């Protein structure tokens, strides 16, 4: 049983090995066509569920920054136009999906003080797409589900006492030992890739450090311990971006610097009725 499961996982892994632009080994079991369809479907669902901003100055500001970033995205990550939507929501968040989809919540525009800081946010999110992180995460979940299923059968067929505790322990081990650190490596990689991308697009890469200093003040120490989080701590991110800054500054293209004007006032999102 163990040999069969290991052989199955090894075969899947070896057949889908790749390398990120930073040199990290990757396992990707899904095709880009599949990921693009998932991204488009998820984005359509988001647009149905979350109000979309109609404030032209805000939308124009986000579109201007996104246009400056996406023109420098490798064709291997996405070919064609990018769809950018500003969502009326107090969430301090943004995202990018396979298939050329970018969503920015108005809540994060109150944290990003300048076009450069928004460039850091969008650069980071697009970095996830460039490095195919969605594919990796789905693949990791698929492989972990195979392992859990096989382990469940094996333990169920054995004479081990306290089987429920064994399975609970296995679940915790997977969550904190594999899935969460895996996600943290994605976040750190997207930070670095995004910092380089924003620099190539004409945004000052030093703003990425200032952004996470703002985020740190906003969290006010409320973030969970790093080993229990899918994201690195704010201080870890600041340190890693600071260490990489010299390389990003070498890519900083001031001639490409856009003039994206942030509105003085970002309209408050509508109050959700309970």
Structure description:
The chain has one domain (7-256). Helix content is 57%, strand content 7%. The protein has 274 residues and is mainly alpha-helical. It contains eight helices and five strands; from the N terminus they run αββααβββααααα. Strand 4 and strand 5 form a beta hairpin. The strands form two sheets. The chain has a three-stranded mixed beta sheet with strand order 3-5-4.
List the helices and strands and how they pair.
Elements: H1 2-14, E1 17-19, E2 25-27, H2 32-49, H3 56-70, E3 83-87, E4 94-97, E5 101-105, H4 115-130, H5 133-156, H6 163-200, H7 206-219, H8 234-251
Parallel strand pairs: 3-5
Antiparallel strand pairs: 1-2, 4-5
State the gist of this model.
The protein is mainly alpha-helical and 274 residues long. The protein has helices at residues 2-14, 32-49, 56-70, 115-130, 133-156, 163-200, 206-219, 234-251, and strands at 17-19, 25-27, 83-87, 94-97, 101-105. It has a 3-stranded mixed sheet with strand order 3-5-4. A two-stranded antiparallel sheet has the order 1-2.
């Amino acid at each position: 049983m163990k040999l069969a499961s290991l052989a199955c996982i090894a075969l899947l892994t070896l057949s889908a090995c790749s390398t990120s632009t930073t040199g990290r080994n990757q396992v990707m079991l899904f095709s880009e066509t599949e990921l693009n369809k998932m991204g488009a479907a998820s984005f359509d669902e988001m647009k149905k569920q979350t109000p979309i901003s109609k404030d032209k100055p805000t939308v124009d500001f986000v579109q201007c920054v996104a246009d400056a970033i996406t023109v420098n995205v490798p064709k291997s990550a996405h070919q064609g136009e990018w769809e950018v939507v500003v969502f009326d929501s107090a969430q301090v968040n943004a995202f990018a999906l396979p298939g050329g989809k970018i969503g920015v919540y108005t809540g994060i525009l109150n944290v990003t003080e300048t076009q450069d800081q928004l460039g850091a946010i969008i650069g980071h999110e697009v970095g996830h797409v460039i490095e195919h992180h969605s594919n990796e995460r789905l693949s990791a979940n698929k492989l972990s589900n195979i392992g859990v299923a096989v382990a469940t059968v094996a333990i169920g067929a054995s004479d081990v006492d306290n089987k429920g505790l064994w399975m609970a322990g296995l679940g915790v081990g997977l969550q904190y030992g594999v899935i969460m650190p895996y996600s943290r490596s994605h976040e750190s990689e997207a930070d670095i890739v995004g910092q380089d991308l924003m620099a190539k697009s004409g945004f000052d890469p030093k703003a990425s450090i200032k952004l996470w200093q703002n985020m740190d003040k906003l969290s006010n120490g409320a973030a969970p311990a790093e080993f229990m989080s899918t994201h690195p701590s704010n201080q870890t991110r600041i340190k890693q971006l600071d260490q990489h800054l010299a390389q990003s500054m070498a890519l900083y293209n001031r001639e490409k610097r856009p003039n994206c004007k942030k509105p003085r006032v970002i309209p408050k999102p509508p109050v959700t009725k309970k």
